[in-house]
Amino acid sequence: MTPQIEAWVIGASIAGVAAQGAAAVLEAGRRSFDLMGVLVVALAASLGGGSLRDMLLDRPVFWIADQRYLLAAIVAALVTFCVARIWRLPVRLFVIADAFGLALFTVAGAQAAIASQAPWLVVSLMGVMTGAAGGLVRDVLCNQTPLIMLSGELYASASWLGALLLVAVHEAGFGPDVASMTGGLTVLGLRLGAMRYHWHLPVFSARE
Amino acid sequence: MTPQIEAWVIGASIAGVAAQGAAAVLEAGRRSFDLMGVLVVALAASLGGGSLRDMLLDRPVFWIADQRYLLAAIVAALVTFCVARIWRLPVRLFVIADAFGLALFTVAGAQAAIASQAPWLVVSLMGVMTGAAGGLVRDVLCNQTPLIMLSGELYASASWLGALLLVAVHEAGFGPDVASMTGGLTVLGLRLGAMRYHWHLPVFSARE
Amino acid sequence: MTPQIEAWVIGASIAGVAAQGAAAVLEAGRRSFDLMGVLVVALAASLGGGSLRDMLLDRPVFWIADQRYLLAAIVAALVTFCVARIWRLPVRLFVIADAFGLALFTVAGAQAAIASQAPWLVVSLMGVMTGAAGGLVRDVLCNQTPLIMLSGELYASASWLGALLLVAVHEAGFGPDVASMTGGLTVLGLRLGAMRYHWHLPVFSARE
């Protein structure tokens, strides 16, 4: 990557962390959390997935190596906490920002796993984990069944399909830019399409 | 260990991961999870305990170093997902397979901790964690109080007693084969006996 | 630190771990946990925060490097389990011991992060995590919304303010003793004051 592209990717990632932190504050809004509780949920949601990925791959944890991610998540959560008390925020905007974040983090997670020489299936799972595990941690802390596991529109599955495609393109010998664009656009297209046309996976029902 | 025994142990471990993944799918069956939710529960249940152990001991995470474990868990979950919609699966079979898995993972976890030079009490705890923490993570994700903490038949406690015996035999100077057999058979015997004769631990009740 | 002070700090930390383990047993008392379930909650509460800190900072996990912490937590939990069935224990005593533990662990966590060359905001967060994340894990395992996130008296926020002050004093060039005393006394003062005068943070309420 050229330095310009790298700077752009870091900037986009910081914006993605901020968006996930702000979205988590709004989702936590229906509970009687105090300011600290809201911050805990926002940090868990925005940094949890990448932290788990980095600990599993034994890499330096991203927000410890560069605390701008942490700062962005805290500021975004505090601003949302204050603004949401005064104005009614457009939830739809956050949901669309979250779709971009999902695509971005899926690509970032898969590329980090490729850089750690992980095998292909692990690479794809690290993509999903980076994109979707933050929401899992957030819901566990809020004491509710994680939304991404319940039947609904594609979310983690969109992330996984994109990550698998990214690995396939990478294994086929294409460069990281082509693989990242293919994977990222797949995640974004599947997620936005699922929101628009209510695409979903089969629901499990065991024979009693 | 001779290469033949090592190959056998790896094969048994992969089978154990697959059994835990399949059992988790059946346990998740009463909830309205979609295919991805079922996969998440299966992966957390079958890989969660060993992942926690490896991160705590700062060893390479087992399913990242060898993705056959991951593949086995995914395939077992997918097959169970499909088959359980058509036939009524014998839950009893899975419960017995799970008892073997508990014994196997307890031994594997304790031996991994011994290889990392961990002190004796830590070794025994790593045995329990590898055997039983996956079920803990599974229940947390399903938003229910972990079964292994509620009063019931011996489970984590069977694993801990076996692991403590394994450490004692190891500290007494016996080889890894004797220690592993002693510990593993203890876990298996206690767990199967508890299921048959309803052995349980005292229940906690604080004086009000 | 002189060897005498170091020995005192280790002794205080072990006592703190034991206090948190005992307190967790009493909090778990209203549920039908068995002996093993009570132990799991006690270990998660007393060792969870520090374990997470050490894994995130990629340091040796404290209770694996020195199993006296683990032993203290287990013994404290077992003794409380037995004693609480016979006598009604003064919960107030544990709550005050817990405030001292919170201050101690906040300082220990922040100093560990400073030793790992972490940037200032990360240092402050590691202080909070060490002090307060154990309670978070305990409540998640008990399947209830974490107490520290609900509106109530200052707890994690007292820890964070103390940790931020510790970092500020450290960055201003003062030695570790001055920084630790300032931060620790701030946490203790805020927590005891919050319990006495019911100080609390603003509660979140999004505009519908």
* Assembly type: homotrimer
Helix content of chain A: over 70%
Q: How large is the share of residues in beta strands of chain A?
A: under 5%
What is the domain total for the residues of chain A? 1
Gyration radius over CA of chain A: 17 Å
Please summarize the sheet with the most strands of chain A: none
Largest interface (CB within 8 Å) is between:
A-B, 34 and 38 residues
State the shape of chain A.
globular
Q: What integer is the average pLDDT of chain A?
A: 88
Structural class of chain A: mainly alpha
Summarize the structure.
The structure is a homotrimer of 208-residue chains. The first copy, chain A, has helices spanning 3-27, 35-56, 62-65, 68-86, 91-115, 120-141, 156-171, 176-197. With 208 residues, chain A is mainly α.
Give the topology, please:
The structure is a homotrimer of 208-residue chains.
Chain A: H1 3-27, H2 35-56, H3 62-65, H4 68-86, H5 91-115, H6 120-141, H7 156-171, H8 176-197
Helix pairs in contact in A: 1-2, 1-4, 1-5, 2-4, 2-6, 5-6, 5-7, 5-8, 6-7, 7-8
What does it look like?
With 208 residues, chain A is mainly α. Chain A has one domain (3-197). Helices cover 75% and strands 0% of the residues of chain A. Chain A is built from eight helices and no strands. Chain A has helices at residues 3-27, 35-56, 62-65, 68-86, 91-115, 120-141, 156-171, 176-197. In chain A, helix 5 runs parallel beside helix 7 (156-171). The termini of chain A are far apart. In chain A, 56% of the residues are buried.
